[in-house]
Amino acid sequence: MTNKGQILRLLNYKNLLKHLQTLGFKKVFSDNISDTLEISSSLVRKDFGNFGITGNRKGGYDIDSILAKIDEILGKDEIQKVIVVGTGRIGQALMNYQGFIKEGIQIVAGFDNDFSKVSEGEDIPILHLDKLPEFVKEKNIKIAIMCVPQLVAKHTLDMLANSGVGGVLNFTPIKFQSSNEVTVNNINIVHELENLIYIVNKQKTT
Amino acid sequence: MTNKGQILRLLNYKNLLKHLQTLGFKKVFSDNISDTLEISSSLVRKDFGNFGITGNRKGGYDIDSILAKIDEILGKDEIQKVIVVGTGRIGQALMNYQGFIKEGIQIVAGFDNDFSKVSEGEDIPILHLDKLPEFVKEKNIKIAIMCVPQLVAKHTLDMLANSGVGGVLNFTPIKFQSSNEVTVNNINIVHELENLIYIVNKQKTT
DNA sequence: ATGTTAATGTTAGTTATTTCACATATTTAT
DNA sequence: ATAAATATGTGAAATAACTAACATTAACAT
User: Fold this and answer.
1) Which residues neighbour strand D (beta carbon < 7 Å)?
2) Where are the beta strands (DSSP E) in A11-112?
3) Are B41 and B140 in the same domain?
4) Helices B41-50 and B30-37, interaxial angle, to 10°?
5) What Å value separates CA B51 and C1' C19?
6) For A156, phi and psi rounded to 5 degrees?
7) In chain B, what is the straight-line distance between the N-terminal and C-terminal CA atoms, in Å?
8) Would the CB atoms of B105 and A197 count as touching at under 8 Å?
9) Cα(A114)–Cα(A120) distance, integer angstroms
């Protein structure tokens, strides 16, 4: 029933609705949403229907209710603790990214193989990779962001899976498949850029 | 004919085939590819067919030929110059990311609104945002990576479009639509993480 | 040479996703 | 109270994306 891009679409609804909320709107129509997000209004209604978000036959949807429902769907009752594995430039950037916390995501630690990067006293400590399994088990970490060098990616992923992590956001150029133990979502920045370049070059030619 | 995810898939083929190449393989079968990438072999063959990659009825595909063809499709004849707009942590991480250059992508400059970040002498200079339009026109920049704060995202995108940039990889939390002037591909890291969290939590419940 | 095998290339079929279209319900106006 | 207007909710239709199946052809063995 719930399909692949649906949660990402839900998150887009959420962003838009929060924006509308700050502008003082109380109600919204599926048409409003479809216009700004460039999808059909029936898809909006279908998504809402699928998630049990219900409106009034006239009068549209109540923004507060939708937002509450979306947070409920996403399970936003408790703060999600996330670790960052690999504290190179990208890893560190993500560790300090300010956009997570207001969505209830807290980066609780970074991990690195390089002892010179370790700094346990910090606000968000960087610990040595050896301590990862223990940390994950103790703090019951379910989600990790992986930004390690390509060469150690496989090994790191195995380590994460064995430690009990259930989901990995993989920024490594290697594309990993999800397994029974661990769900992997891959973000390949180089590929995204190459894809964009392809599209732009193609338009130029046409 | 060529559908949305096809180029990204092509890039995955490329990665895999380069790997096989380093292992000494000369030939590959659609089955080999489908196994590792977990798609059907007929999709591999269909993709290849769509892109004019042709094999032998027995004997499979010649790896060198596929790779050459893929590079040809992607237009990898000349180095793509890319700028990074917004040199916060993520912007700087991307400016220094080592994975681009071997794919023929060169980050030629960063831009920032903050004068204290400007450093023109560096290997990859950071210039003030005011100089962006001129720079883009002079160096014929077509692609930009946008990592500015949310508040100035819209304005920055307009500036890029007006300067002649044709494609923007947007790391801002605001989702922009592509227009006639500029193609925007959005990467929302927070959403990706929230999506992953949703999947993992759901599995736990099931 | 001829048959057998094994992989491609391609058409038909399937599944997934999105949109259309309209009956239904709810508000507003008269 | 009744009618008109309007937005939801939903099943059917359309589109897109992927897979299965197989006829075709090239290599190899006999």
Assistant:
1) A 28-31, 41-42, 45-46, 48-49, 53-61; B 3-6, 39-40, 42-43, 45-46, 56-59
2) 27-28, 61-62, 80-85, 105-112
3) no
4) 110
5) 29
6) -65, -45
7) 39
8) yes
9) 13
Residue B134, in any domain of the structure:
yes
CATH number of the domain bearing residue B52? 1.10.10.10
Tens digits of pLDDT across chain A (206 residues)? 788 899 999 999 999 999 999 999 999 999 999 999 999 999 999 999 999 999 999 999 999 999 999 999 999 889 999 999 999 999 999 999 999 999 999 999 999 999 999 999 889 999 999 999 999 999 999 999 999 999 999 999 999 999 999 999 999 999 999 999 999 999 999 999 999 999 999 877 76
- The answer to whether residue A112 sits within a structural domain is yes
Out of A22, A45, A73, pick the residue that ends a domain: A73
Residues of chain B positioned with their CB less than 8 A from the CB of A100: 190, 193
> Do B94 and B185 sit in the same domain of this protein?
yes
Phi, psi of B147 (to 5 degrees): -130, 40
Determine contact: A93 vs chain B, CB below 8 A. yes
What residues form DSSP beta bridges with B85? B111, B146
Same domain, A61 and A18: yes
Residue with tokens 């989600």: A143
Pair (A52, A123) in one structural domain: no
CATH number for the domain harbouring residue B111: 3.40.50.720
Chain A hits for B200, CB-CB cut-off 8 Å, are 142-143, 166-167, 183
Which of B11, B187, B197 faces A194 most closely, judged by CB atoms? B11
- Tally C-beta pairs within 8 A across A and B: 164
Residue of A nearest to B201 (CA): A75
Is residue A108 situated within a structural domain? yes
- What pLDDT digit, counting tens, does each position of B103-119 carry? 999 999 999 999 999 99
Determine the structural domain holding residue A124 and report its residue range.
80-191
Instruction: Please tell me if residue A161 touches chain B, with a CB cutoff of 8 Å.
Output: no
Here the contacts of A113-119 (C-beta below 8 Å, separation 24 or greater) are A113/A148, A113/A152, A117/A87
Number of domain units in chain A: 2
Please indicate, yes or no, whether residues B44 and B117 belong to a single structural domain of this protein: no
